[in-house]
């Protein structure tokens, strides 16, 4: 299967877009099949796939970022158009699946009509958080493939690293998970888009080795707060959260041939409908004469 990792972060502490892309690919590559193909797409500085090529991907992962979606930079506006095109394609053909993480979660929400703003508690959320999820969420086919270590009913733990969140979800979104810090923690759009405010791809080591340095640089928390938050991180569900996202990306796949056949059928039907309409107009003109 073919997946695109749309990199939205160019932070030098991560090694720029290349470093972020390499990390995400390393986290997901090989979890399902050695035949999976993950390709980094540099969303900040690179070129996005054309609209006609979206159908050739089985899924996209939109990464986190140190940028704010409210910066409204030209590259973000291009991504919003791309997201709307990919979403439309996914609704028509069941693919590509889309996963949004943190910034990606927010950007997808914004592109589809949501509102993003500062965290309600006015704090930068750094650490791990328990998320209360919809009772039916963990019984979804893709979620049942994952054995969560924490057995508390309808709750999962995820890494958090954000100063903004989705304050108002798009009308087409379904609320899946909430926490005491953020109402719209996990959203789904139909059956093809899953987005999380938290980071299902992060582990405690990443939070300590890289993200703590970013926290020190931006100064939103002092060193004692950073250390205290790191000490309180619960890492039980880290691998399971990554596996859950991976299972979602692979859930109910349609082959490229199937999707291209659907496109061909759609094109034929559109042509047939147009021919029928022309014939109807001719009959109407004949009767009127």
From TrEMBL:
Protein's UniProt name: Glutamine amidotransferase domain-containing protein
Start and end residues of each Glutamine amidotransferase domain: 57-205
PROSITE patterns per UniProt: GATASE_TYPE_1
GO cellular component assignments: cytosol
Taxonomy, superkingdom: Eukaryota
One Pfam assignment: GATase
